Amino acid sequence: MRLDDEEMSENVEKRSGGGMRNIGIGGGIGGIIIVVLALLFKQDPQQVMQAVQQVQGPGSSSGSGTSQQLTKANASPLELFSGKVLRSTERIWQQEFQQMNKTYVKPHLAIFEGSTTSGCGAAESAMGPFYCPADQEVYLDVSFFNELEQRFGVKGDFSKAYVIAHEVGHHVQNLLGISQKVQSMRSRLSEKDYNKLSVMLELQADFLAGVWANQQNKLNKFLDPGDIESGLNAASAVGDDKLQEAGTGHVVPDAFTHGTSAQRMFWFKKGFDTGDISQGDTGIGLGNR
Predict the structure, then answer these.
(1) How is the chain split into domains, by residue range?
(2) What is the dihedral of CA 97, 130, 112, 93, to 10 degrees?
(3) What's the whole-number mean pLDDT along residues 167-187?
(4) What is the pLDDT of residues 46-66, one digit of tens each?
(5) CA-CA distance, 213 to 162, in Å (whole number)?
């Protein structure tokens, strides 16, 4: 994956000093890292935090922290990479929205360590990356990428880019009114039925990540051999069936909220193969297009 000539987005902030909770590895249902991946890509961080606290118990954090714009001068290699990926998504989605006669509002990316606050409540590293529609920000602790590689063998820069592009996909859904449509149905549905809608939402975000990769590759051939396989491996690693099997030893389809490994790979690949947002109806429509 080649991003050497890519500029870094101006919409990235680096937060520090927010404090670290006492969140360890081990115990619970196979360890917090299983919970991290099982809850990856959630849109409601408060619910995620409740699940984490049930496993680990309450922790503590201290300090309100500071925030500054991320620049090449103060960015680590992973932070710089993340800022470049965000800039790439900005370009592609501005282009796609123009074709729909719409204005693309760029999301912000908050890079933090340990914990911070978001428009959706507390943000913790243990949540994994997530998008908050209330403040239109993606929250990311880049140490997650190390966990993904070291503990689950998901390697390659494109697997990291896929994670960011998926969260930006949730932002696209938010702008198109898809997320609001799904959320409005929550009180009228059983947990089982709402989980089905959640799966559709997540699979569509995977599809949108694939659309981004397709369109960016058309612009500058930024993909290397093996990159798409890296993205597919990342999609597979966070399938509900694989995570449930790893965490509890059995699979409960009614509890799926993100889709199986096969489904996630299918929709990401469909987005990449077609590059056509109109092909991404996973069952919840395509919003205000």
Answers:
(1) 12-279
(2) -10
(3) 93
(4) 444 444 444 334 444 444 568
(5) 8
Q: How far is residue 139's CA from residue 132's CA, in Å, rounded to a whole number?
A: 8
Output the CA torsion sign for 65, 70, 71, 74.
positive
pLDDT for the residue 238: 61
User: Residue 123 corresponds to which amino acid?
Assistant: A
**Cα dist. 246→48, 107, 153 in Å?**
19, 33, 14
Nearest to 275 by CA among 224, 230, 233, 228: 228
CA angle at residue 36 from 24 to 126, to 5 degrees?
A: 55
**Helix and strand counts by DSSP (H, E) for the chain:** 10, 7
pTM for the full predicted model: 0.82
Q: Residue 29's Cα: distance from chain center in Å?
A: 23
Please state the rounded mean pLDDT for residues 258-275: 89
| Count of all residues that appear for the chain in the document | 289
Which string of DSSP letters, residue by residue, matches 155-192?
A: -SHHHHHHHHHHHHHHHHHHHTTHHHHHHHTGGGS-HH
Q: How many CA atoms lie within 13 A of 217 on its CB side?
A: 18
d(CA 209, CA 227): 13
Q: Is 23's pLDDT higher than 50?
A: no
For residue 157, give the amino acid letter.
D
**Tens digits of residue pLDDT in 119-165:** 998 888 877 889 999 999 999 999 888 877 887 788 889 999 999 99
